[in-house]
Amino acid sequence: MSDNNALLLDNQLCFALYSTSLAMTQMYKPLLEPLGLTYPQYLVLLILWEQDGIGLKDIGERLGQKSGALTPVIKRMEQEGLVNRTRQLHDERSLNVLLTPKGQQLKAEALKINQCLLEACGIPSRELIDMKEKIITLRESLLKNQSQ
């Protein structure tokens, strides 16, 4: 790539990932709205549907965020009756987050959201899986290089 093209926005991998991420989260918005969920709340629910009752710190690690940034999201989810926060017996500073029956019931609706997004992507499932795996490999490589 020539020096003239090296700094063109459309030639940047970071921008391709950033703008695609924005487009993806915008696709979720109207699908999550009827459920009364924001995208960050949906991500928390995905984690809890996979492993209910885990610590706030663990949720933050899975999402690549500090637990302090998630506290308002979790508090709002608790106010809406989706989760309960409980202190760990062995460490009162640590919180566990548990799904309520209302939070568990939303899982069935989430399956419909996944199907809508697959259709909106317009790419065969196998290609999407391959793309996701490559993006995960890229993320892991970037995180590894950050910590060096």
TrEMBL record:
| Gene Ontology MF annotations | DNA binding; DNA-binding transcription factor activity
GO terms in the biological process aspect are: response to stress
The UniProt keyword set, sorted, is: Cytoplasm, DNA-binding, Transcription, Transcription regulation
Record-annotated HTH marR-type domain positions:
10-144
Q: Where is it predominantly found?
A: cytoplasm
Q: Which domain of life is it from?
A: Bacteria
Q: Which SMART domains did the record assign? A: HTH_MARR
Indicate where this protein resides in the cell: Cytoplasm
Indicate whether Transcription appears among the record's keywords.
yes
Which SUPFAM superfamilies has this protein been placed in? Winged helix' DNA-binding domain (SSF46785)
Q: Which Pfam families match?
A: MarR
Name listed for the protein in its UniProt record: Organic hydroperoxide resistance transcriptional regulator
